[in-house]
Amino acid sequence: MYNNLTSLADIPFVVSTASIGLMDARQRGLMNPPAALASSLPLVPATAPPPPPPVPGPSTAPASAVPSLSPAVAQDSSTYQYQALDDVSASIQRSLALLHQLHCSVSSFTLSSQLTLLDRLNGVIKELSTMHSAAEDCHFQIPVDVIRLVDEGKNPDEFTKDLFNSCIQRNQATKGKVDAFKALRKHLLEEVEEAYPEETEAYRALRTAAALEARKMIQGQTPLANGNVKVKMEH
Predict the structure, then answer these.
(1) Which of 45, 109, 123, 162 could disulfide-pair with 21, CB 3.0 to 4.6 Å?
(2) Does this model's pTM top 0.85?
(3) Are 10 and 125 found together in one domain?
(4) Does any domain span residue 178?
(5) Rounded to an integer, what distance in angstroms lies between the CA atom of residue 137 and that of residue 139?
(6) Is residue 146 scored above 70 in pLDDT?
């Protein structure tokens, strides 16, 4: 039975099954609790759906009024978001466990298990509220293809694998084009050198001088933080 509850999409089915089981038991005369028992039953809160978030409009504040985050603050914010993501993941696991328990209660419903059923149903609602609150602190950009892959019941790691394979294939195709153009340039330069040797020598001298000038300009600039810039000499 636990394998049937692999996602939160099964919540309506479980709740509907619980309602049908309660109605069927009432029709058979199994649910006639006294007033004292009825008053002690926990009530399932009927919470209204949260209002939709406001649509952000164009900012009217000047650019100078927008505060910029320092690297330390940005790192703390990222760490806080990852902590919130861990909380959401733990809440999802707890929700799946509660749904499994609720499914067991609905499948083997009796009059004596009514309080247990309502208690577990309230536990699911409370855990979903906790999950929603924790998810408000998570601001991650997730590709739509990954969400679609998860909805299809596939492993999201397959998306990463396919993406890397696609990048490798495109990289190989681009490298093949670059090698083909290099071979064509070399062949044309050899043909031109046979027909116009003096012009070809002047062309190579100009290319060498331009490469040296570019190297001097780069060396005169401030070194970058990611290391020295190397210029590849081509003849």
Answers:
(1) 109
(2) no
(3) yes
(4) yes
(5) 6
(6) yes
